[in-house]
C-alpha cells in the first residue's frame, strides 16, 4: 500500500465487498478485501443511518465505536480490533478484524460441549481479555458465547461492545437528563444477566464475571446454567441460583469437582462475594497456567489437544481459507504476533458497488436480546414487587476499577446468612421475627409489607382470579410461566396435566424461612436427600417464633396437580409443587402431647416452610374448607401418588409389551387400587421410610439437643422423585385414591397418537374387541399377544409379518387382523 493510501481517509470504495457474514439489530456485516492490498481481509460492519435513527440505536453505535476505539490502541488479541471508521450519506462503516472461525457459540453447538482442556483454554483467554477490558474501565455487560468470535487459528475475540459501560458514555448518560427511559439501562441477555442487574439494576465489573461463570458452565455442559421456558423463568432461576450439573452426559468421566467448585464461587448472588478475576486466576483449575506466558495462553484452540469429540465434525470450517486477517497490519502490543497469512491463491474478486449493499432490516434472530429482556425484567420486577424507583437508585455504573458497593439483592437469600420472614402479615408477627442481626440489609430493601412480596408472589398476578374453585388454576400457573418446579426430570408437570382440583384446603399457619444451606457441590443427588441437620438447626433457632406464630392462619390449598399455595389478605401465593423432587417433607412433632405437629417443606436450595394447624379455630367463613378431615402429610403424599400414578400410566403407554399370551390392561374399575392396596403400599413405603430413618444417624443425634417439650423427629420423609411415603398421623386414615379418568382402548390409542409414540419398537397393544367368552372369563380385557394396533400401518403390517411368519401382511392390515383373530379363536376352542 502506498503511503498516500495509508494516510488518506478511507471510504467504502477502498474495499471489495464479498459475502454477508451476518446481521445484528442495527447492522449488517460483510467480509471485504482491501483493494489496495488484496491479501488483507476485514469484516465491515455497515450500519444504516436511517435505520439507526429510526430504531433509536444512536447510543449503541456511539458506545460501540468509542469503546472499540479505546480498546483498539492496545491491540489485545482477545478483542475484535477496529481499524477504520467512515461514513457516507447512507451508512456508517466499521472496519474490523475478520473472524473467520465464526461465533464461539457455533463451535460449541457443533461440539455439543467442550472438553476440559478446551474449556480451560478458552476460559484463560476470556479471563485475560476481560481483565484487560476491565483495566480500561470498561464493563462489557453482554458477555456470552455469541459475542465471542474466533479467528482462523481458533483464538477468541470478544465483540459487540454496543452495550458496554465506559467512562465516556456513562458520563454522557448522567449529564443528559433527557436520556432514554431508564429501562434502556437494562442490558444483556436473559441467560447471562446478573442477579444484581435483575434485582437492583446494579451493574459492575462483577456482572461480567457472573456472565463468565455462566459461560464456563456452558463450555462444560453445552448449555447455560440458567435457562427457563421463558425469560421470566430464567430470571427466577438466576435469582434462586437454580442450576444443575448433570453428570449424565458424562458416561465415564465425571465432571471435575474443581470446575464445579470454581463455578460455584463465581455464580454467587452477592456481587461482593463473587470471585474476582485476580482470585480466579489463582484457582486450582488454573494451577498449571502461567498467566505471564501470553504466547501459551493465546495459542489457537486447534493447537490444544484433546478436542472432546474429534475435529472431523466440521469444527473450524473456514479457518483454512488462505486469507489473512486484517490484523496482520497491527502490532500485537506484547502479545504473540499474529501469523502472516498471505495467501498465494488468486482471489476471485467481485466488486460489488457499495451503493447497492442492502441493509437488511433486522430479522430478530436473538429473541433474548436487549429490548425483550428489558421488558421482561421490568415485568419480572413488577411481579417481584421491586419498585422501579428502588431499582433505579444506583443508576450510575462505576467507571474505575474499584469494586462498587452494591446493596445485597433484596429478598434473595444470602449465601451465608439466614433471615426470617413471616408468611403472614408483618403486623401480626412477634417482634422476635425481625431479621436476624447477621443479615445485611440495604436501605433500598423493601419492607416486609405487601408492597414487597417475596419471590414466589410472582407466581400469580395479583389481578388474576386465583380461587381454585372458580379458575382453572392449572392454566393460570402455566400461563404465568413460572413454576417452582424447575428440575429436569420432572416432566409430568408439562405433559398431560390433569385439570386441577382441590385436594385439601384448610386454614394453617405458614412460616417461611429462606435459606441457602452450605453443602456439597451442586448435585441433585446430594440435595434431594433430606438434610436433617439444617432442619434441626433451624427449628432450634426459631423455636420461640415457631411456637408463637400461630396467630394469623392463612387459607392453604393443595391442588391435585401438586401445587401448594396459600391466600392471605386476598393475596395468593404459590409456594411449591409437592411433586418437585427437590422438595423434602418432614412431619415434625413439635408438641407431641397436643398433637400439634409441624409439617416442614424443605425446598432445595432456598426455602423452608413450616406449616401447622392453627391452635385457634378459624370461624371467619372466608371460603370453603374441604377435606379437612385428612391431614396434610397424607394429603401431600396423595397428591404425589396421583401424579405418580399418572406418570406411570403415561410411561406404560410408551412401551407396552406382551410377554405372555394374555395380559390384563387396566380397566376403569380395576385400575383403582382398593383401599387395602393403598394401605399396603403406604405400609410398604413407611417401612422403607423407617429404614431410612434408622440408617440416618443425624436424626437421632441432632434431635436429642431439643428440650423435653420437643419430641424427636418422628417422621422423616425424603422426597424420592417417584413415590410419596404415605406416612400416617395418629388415628387418621388415608382417603381412597382417585385416579385420572380411565384410559379405554381408543383413549389409549388417541393418547399414544397425541404423544407421538410411533416408533416401530413400541407399537401399542390393546385388547381385542372380539375375544371368545371363554377367554373373557379367563381374564378380563385379555388380548392375543399378536394383536397389534398402531397409528402406523407399516408397523402393523411389519409386526404381523414377523409374528406369523407368513406373508399374511401383504393382504393388508384388516385382512391380517381377521386372519389372526380366526387363528386365535381356533386355538381357544
Ligand atoms: N468481525 C467479524 N468477523 C466475522 N463475522 C462477524 C464479525 N462481526 C460480526 N460478525 C458476524 O456478523 C453478525 C452480526 O454482527 P453484529 O455485530 O452486527 O451484530 P450482533 O452483535 O450479532 O447483534 P447486535 O448488534 O444486535 O448485538 C454476528 O453474529 C457475526 O456472526
From TrEMBL:
GO terms for biological process: cell integrity MAPK cascade. Residues 15-286 form the Protein kinase domain. Belongs to the protein kinase superfamily. AGC Ser/Thr protein kinase family. PDPK1 subfamily. Keywords: ATP-binding, Kinase, Nucleotide-binding, Serine/threonine-protein kinase, Transferase. This is non-specific serine/threonine protein kinase. Its EC number is 2.7.11.1. Residues 430-448, 690-722, 769-778 have a biased composition (Polar residues). GO terms for molecular function: ATP binding; protein serine/threonine kinase activity. It catalyses: L-seryl-[protein] + ATP = O-phospho-L-seryl-[protein] + ADP + H(+); L-threonyl-[protein] + ATP = O-phospho-L-threonyl-[protein] + ADP + H(+). It is an enzyme of class 2 (transferase).
